[in-house]
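Protocol step 6 of 9: fold each sequence in the batch and record its structure tokens directly after the sequence line. For illustration, a two-sequence batch is reproduced in full.

Sequence one:
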Amino acid sequence: MESSAGTASETLYAAPHAAPLVALFHPDTARAAQFAAAIVAEGWRVERLVPPAAGLRPWLDSCFDMLVLNPFLGWQEPAEFVRLARSIAGRRPMLVLSDRDSVADRLLALRGGADDAAGWTGNLPEILARIAGLLRRARLTAGQIGAGELRIDLIDRRVERAGRLIRLPLREFDLLANLARVPDRPMSRDALLRAVWRLDFDPGTNRVEVHMSRLRAKVDRGFAWPMLWTVKGQGYALRSRPDQGSD
């Protein structure tokens, strides 16, 4: 068994940015590479995570849609590893793999909080089908909205644009979420005051403009095209595509 190397996770973007991102940890690099290639071939993205001993920051900062891991190779306490992974995954689906057909391994994983568990013993198509099923159910139940390359998790209050995590304070998150609910349609300043600040009157301040400016700096800066636009006489809009806008 060969341990994963490096100090940062590796993300493969062969699939479009809108495709689900599967975070993968397998301590055997050859098997990890084989599995990662199969995931990309299915049309998903994959991010190979470093071992937890190298630091949990890549795990915590990843904007994955699903976590797949093997906690059984080289770990004295796989049950503890599964519980740790469950806490990181939050409400996102988690599949635990074992490199043997072991009922004991599967029960340990399920009792530790995995959504599914399977032995990977040459049954790669079955594993990929299990991933597809978990992703499908997650999309039906998760409180997620988005437009284009933007994804917003309303439950965990996470924002991702083109695979990059964007950290937002409460007001900016609520402002972005309300715009994302009606992509490509402008929301008036009054409507945003009601939705974000619960105000039915104009307080005569520039709070909307200030928060929009801060939001633009985080959501648009460093990307190829701006998503947030000022629509003259109508308010603000979140564009799902790099169309011509007015600012």
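Sequence two, same batch, same settings:
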Amino acid sequence: MINDKNQSGFHLLSDNTDAFVARFALATMAEKTLDIQYYIMHDDASGQYLGYAILSAADRGVHVRILVDDINLSGRDNSLKMLSQHKNIEIRVFNPLSNRDWFRNLELITNLNRAGRRMHNKLFVADSNSAIVGGRNIGDEYFDARQNLNFVDLDLLTVGPIVDDITKSFNDYWESHWATTIESLNKTAVVKKQLYNIRRRLKDKWRRAKNTRYFQSLRQSDLTKKIINKQIPFIWANARLFYDLPEKLCDSATKKTIHFGPEVMSYFDLVKNELLIASPYFVPGSSGTDWLNNKHKQGVNIEVLTNSLAATDVIAVHAGYKKYRHQLVKAGIHISELKLTAKKFREKTNVFMKGISNSSLHAKYMVIDQQYVFIGSANIDPRSNNLNTEIGIMVDSRELAGLTKNLFNKTASLENSYQLQIDPSSNKLNWITKERNDELYFSTEPNAGLLRRLGVFILGLFPIEDLL
């Protein structure tokens, strides 16, 4: 029951299979509109399954708008233009590179000041009344569909008034001069028959996929049953949406009205007892380190969850994080690093997969005083703060905070992570974990090969922190 017309409903999507099911369900049940905005949309199995649902929605009259950042679109202009030939599908590319071929790689170097600024927002909105906001992009690694590595991530499925704000944020980006139609970027002639071929290919792939082990896990997911029975357990609470305006990508964008960072920091500045931070790319910088240390001195218990060197997918970021790690732990900040072999939070979704894939943290969330929960696309690093646009929701709910804290504690447990401590005799870091109920201690980065450690050392010599 909704007790207040201003409250919105929220459901945590911590399970990767449920996260796919939720997006597929929104596309399947949409009646009027689908607004889809992502930093990455892979053309892999998951991307094609969702593509089938999105194209099917357009076929039944749903107006589809897709806005995707250009950074990972190399070689896909033709297929996107073919899709945009559908009378109900519009596709725009955010901050497109001038070069649409191999030379785009050179442009990333020669024009880094513009090309390095990206739209990192992630949202999926159906009929302007249901939405998903969080850390996941569209791709196999976000939905437990890869064999070698899958991300540990978190989204919010939401309904209610907050969705109006989410739709407005999409429109701000859609109408921005940074968003360019795919037709303007690609001059290759396409015909409607090519759209027919895409539809047939996606339909054939869908038919073949329905009998796979992965799709058995989708059918048996908890969220699938809840959607069928119309029993999704929403938590109703007051909430506020924060998002950077597209103008943040301009060099001179320093106004607080453009960056959401100064606004959302007002919540964190008021923390009194406990702050939990999950950020896969954690580079707090000198000012962030000072802020954390000062809060700890004021009696705030601060716990940080990030990736270990073995688990991270971006070792350059680990090089930046490494500079502050020892100082933070010595000051009393609790830091846990996710293990490559962490798997407990994916017991259900892996049951139909061959073997067990490795893990990497990708969730970005914070819990303040067991009362406020912030979930979105932003990492704690200079890139999210200065170069990327981001989005996130602050929810005022002890119930949601409790569920999110339980998720944090499970992920940061000794079974799934390494907890960092200072060895008093050597003043060096130790990594502590549990394997088969035995506590293990490491004096160097655990399970990270020589090449990884060497790469971090070399990258740490370069002044690249502002780009991380």
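Proceed to step 7 once all outputs are recorded. Observation for sequence two: Residues 241-467 form a domain with the Endonuclease; Chain A fold (CATH 3.30.870.10).
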